Amino acid sequence: MTMLPSATANATKTYGTKGLSVWSGMPQEEYVTLLKSWSKATKIYLEMQDDVIIGTLLDAVIEPLLAAEFDVTPGGETPVDEEAATFLWDNMMNMHRQTWRSHVRDMMECLSFGFAVGEIVLEKREDGRLWVRNIDPRGQETLVRWDWADDDVVAFVQRPVSSLSFEEITIPIDKLVHVTFRGRKGNPMGRPLLRSLYRPWRFMNN
């Protein structure tokens, strides 16, 4: 079947939108006033983690996942597939001052904050190849905004908490491991497990 040029253009064109509300680089899906400000929300989520019941709940979810065995399965049966799987496994097991399990723990913070990001840091080693040195976590509370291109996130923009200046650091999304929990409509912020617990937690505290 041969399609006319106009029909081909229509078939490959994107018409719709995800419908995510974004203002100044930040999703605006939150309706609770106290949680609309991301700087205030992160402080609340950090406080909630220290609650004995919530902390135990998070441990009950996270610890079994961390106890799992990790492995790499070759994508095929050729020697090249085997070599690629071995190289990936060696990268995972030989990071600098970081284990694969500690990286997974960092990413599990998406349960508390809705998302977690880690910057992929590479280094060239003696064999001449690029290896993963670390996947360094970037604190959720440092987020200033997301940079967007159409409907897609292209960068994570942060301002270090300890910095006295207003200098912003832009990290391309392709340089990051970006994990979200319940990221509806492509929301890079996700929706944290703690968000569902916020209302009863607040009543209990007051």
Q: Could you say how many structural domains there are in total?
A: 1
Give the fraction of residues assigned to helices: 25-40%
Largest sheet: 3 strands, antiparallel
What strand order characterises the main sheet? 4-3-8
The succession of helices and strands, N to C, reads HEEHHHHHHEEEEEEH
Number of strands: 8
Report strand %.
15-25%
Q: Can you give the mean pLDDT?
A: 92
The helix-and-strand class reads alpha+beta
Shape: globular
The first-to-last residue Cα distance is 68 Å
Annotation field: number of helices:
8
Radius of gyration: 21 Å
- Parts with pLDDT < 50 across at least 5 consecutive residues: none
What does this structure look like?
The structure is a single chain. With 206 residues, the protein is α+β, with helices and mostly antiparallel strands. The protein has one domain. The protein is 38% helix and 22% strand. It has helices at residues 5-12, 33-36, 38-49, 52-66, 79-93, 100-107, 110-113, 193-205, and strands at 22-23, 26-27, 115-124, 130-138, 143-149, 152-158, 169-172, 176-180. The strands form 3 sheets. The chain has a 3-stranded antiparallel sheet with strand order 4-3-8. A 3-stranded antiparallel sheet has the order 5-6-7, with no helix packed on it. Strands 1-2 form a two-stranded antiparallel sheet. The longest helix has 15 residues, at 52-66. The radius of gyration is 21 Å and the shape is globular. The N and C termini lie far apart (68 Å). The relative contact order is 0.15.
